Amino acid sequence: PQYCADPTGHADLMTEYLVLPQTNLYRLPEAVSLMAGSLIEPLMMAMHTVEKARLGIGSSVLLIGCGAMGQIILKLARTHPVGKIVVVEPVASKREAALRFGADVVLDPSAGNMLAEALLLTEGRGFDAALSGCAAA
């Protein structure tokens, strides 16, 4: 099959090959491994997400989704002087990871009324920041 059907640089997810303008590319220094280099963009996106939230002292934080991006966002949010971090995640293994990465409370969205849970956890105030752990958000 031909994966690079659109040489304009636009493609859907899971595209094996993609043609991009040279101005969109950056050569990694030899001292930076391909593995480390591949994490730069997700880390920067997570840093931007947390920075944009302007987390203050004691802020209550809701994180929706705790896959790879959500875990990075969670670790970064935990470096701020926030109060409670609540994660909503449907996948059991990712809920377990969220607890290991610093979540105070982890909720399964299929297990109950999320609005009622949120109000209970924040004493009726709601969250100061709601962040998405989804890569496309």
Topology:
Layout: H1 34-53, E1 61-64, H2 68-78, E2 85-88, H3 92-100, E3 105-107, H4 114-121, E4 129-132
Parallel strand pairs: 1-2, 1-4, 2-3
Helix pairs in contact: 1-2
Describe this structure in words.
Strands 3-2-1-4 form a 4-stranded parallel β-sheet, covered by helices on one side. The radius of gyration is 18 Å and the shape is elongated. The protein has helices spanning 34-53, 68-78, 92-100, 114-121, and strands spanning 61-64, 85-88, 105-107, 129-132. β1 (61-64), α2 (68-78) and β2 form a beta-alpha-beta unit. It has 137 residues and is an alpha/beta fold. It is built from 4 helices and 4 strands. It starts with 33 loop residues before the first helix and ends in a 5-residue tail after the last strand.
Which terms summarize this structure?
137 residues; alpha/beta; four-stranded parallel β-sheet; 11% strand; elongated
